[in-house]
Amino acid sequence: MDEAIFKAYDIRGIYPDQLDETAAWKIGYATGQYLRSLLHGYERGMENSHAVCVGRDMRTHGESISKSLISGLRSSGADVIDIGMIDTPQMYFAINHLKTCGGIQVTASHNPANYNGFKISGLQAKPVSGDTGLKEIRHIASSLLHTKGNETGSFKQVDLTEQYKKHVLQFLDKNIKPLKIAIDASNGMAARMVPALFGDLPIDIIALNMTYDGTFKHEPNPLDEDNLKELKETVVAEEADAGVCFDGDADRLMVIDEKGRSVSCDLFTALMAPYFLEKHPGTTVIYDLRSSWVVREEIIAAGGTPRRERVGHSFMKKTLRDCHAAFGGELSGHFYYAANFHADSGMITFVHMLNLLSRSGKPVSEMIEPLRRYHGSGEINFKVSDKAKALKELKVRYSDGQYDDLDGVTIQYKDWWFNSRPSNTEPYLRLNVEAKTSELLSEKVAEISGLLNNIS
After folding, report:
1. Catalytic residue (choose from 64, 109, 121, 314)
2. Of 175, 334, 335, 356, which one is least surrounded by beta carbons within 10 A?
3. Of 100, 116, 155, 122, whose CA–CA distance to 31 is shortest?
4. Looking at its record, which EC class is this enzyme (predicted)?
5. How does pLDDT run across 56-82, given as a tens digit for each residue?
6. How far is the C-alpha of 105 from the C-alpha of 43, rounded, in Å?
């Protein structure tokens, strides 16, 4: 088994070169052992406490990988509840709805079709990542010498579509106004879930890339502007109120305004903050440290408490829970909700977007324009051989600024700031810069890029 498939937040690799059925069995066995070892006291006596939910996305090798995973789980003594082909957020719902000890979603998210992987969650859908269980699962799996065992755990299949639909639609305003929305499902799980959840709403859905056979017209990554071209053109041509592009497993989305322009996810967080603070006055709103200054400003203006957090769903979810926050947003397109088991959901984010549009009666561009107060670089990647050295040099070079090391290096000045952090999933150093003027932004991006390129 190639241990390189164990990433910071999940397990992911190329099929079958890195991740195959043998690896899936071992990971299933290891996960079953690990999740059940976390049960304490009364939890052990609950009906489904020794059960693990398993779901998968639409990839062509997903079913075969899933079968081997399930065999490994059952051989470890874990019961298995197979909930079929689902979006990843439905897994978080299933774990809590069925009260299992955890769940595994077979998915490679936004990666190309030749990838597959596992997103593992524990009790209450708390994420199992590098620091919260993946290392232990890797150790158990890598020590297994065979893939044989008695499947002592029980097995059953359950369709939770109707229960999940009820859960998602509870957040929709009762008198939603008719809207025209272009939706690019990216040939991913949104292609299955959007019609199932929203097919009977008073929404004119213009559907793009709604097949889900494991092949992609474009890579299922909505953060890549090249992947949004068709959606943007459709929004303008069809005079839609907005556009939405989901990623492969439908836990993330990107919003497009009626003019065909992308709405960066930090600006969407800033737009959503007052909406949640109206319902939950004074509460905390979580945002990742790459986000625009405007996010903090909007949270404070709406009477909330802003909380910056490290990049990554495991950190965001834990902080959301620990701070009793109602809502959180990441630049990556993950949006988190206390009322959704402190987890992210593309479908629930879509519902809240519909509520905002319906209530305001304004075009998306008009709602977003006041938030475009600063000029941002977007995320720029640098291949740097010595990431620690590069970050140290940035800290020294900009030592006259306000420094913190919450995640990488963040330096703030009165009229600009930047964050540089090592990627947790790829061999890059990532840079985000924001400034009060476009001229200052260009100057600082060039300045820092030159420094990092010299190091690389």
Report:
1. 109
2. 175
3. 122
4. isomerase
5. 999 999 999 999 999 999 999 999 999
6. 22
For the chain, the distance separating the N- and C-terminal CA atoms, rounded to the nearest angstrom, is 31
- Strand 335-337, strand 327-329: pairing: antiparallel
Q: What is the pLDDT of residue 425?
A: 66
CATH hierarchy code of domain 265-371: 3.40.120.10
Q: By C-alpha distance, which of 29, 17, 15 is closest to 142?
A: 29
Tokens at 321, concatenated: 């829970």
d(CA 233, CA 15): 34
CA–CA separation, 21 and 330 (whole Å): 33
Task: State how far the Cα of 200 lies from the Cα of 26, in Å rounded to an integer.
Answer: 42
In order of 16, 66, 86, 119, 452, the CA distances from 20 in angstroms are 5, 10, 21, 16, 38
Weakly modelled stretches of the chain, pLDDT under 70: 425, 456
Per-domain residue ranges of the chain: 3-160, 179-260, 265-371, 376-455
Tokens read off for 126: 């708390």
Q: Which two tokens stand for residue 384?
A: 């740097």
* Residue 241 dihedral angles phi and psi, to the nearest 5°: -70, -30
Report the alpha-carbon distance of residue 243 to residue 205 in Å, rounded.
10
What is the pLDDT, as a whole number, of residue 456?
A: 65
The CATH architecture annotation of domain 179-260 reads: 3-Layer(aba) Sandwich (3.40)
3-160 shares its CATH topology with 376-455: no
* Residue 2 structure tokens: 């190639």
Catalytic, 399? Answer no
Dihedral (CA of 316, 406, 301, 280) sign: positive
> Which residue, among 375, 371, 377, 380, has the nearest Cα to 438 in the 3D structure?
375
pLDDT of residue 44: 83
Contacts of 89 (CB under 8 A, 6+ apart): 250, 251, 340, 343, 344, 345, 346, 347, 348
Architecture (CATH level 2) of domain 3-160: 3-Layer(aba) Sandwich (3.40)
Distance between CA 370 and CA 373 in Å, rounded? 7
**Two tokens at 392?**
């140290």
| pTM greater than 0.85 | yes
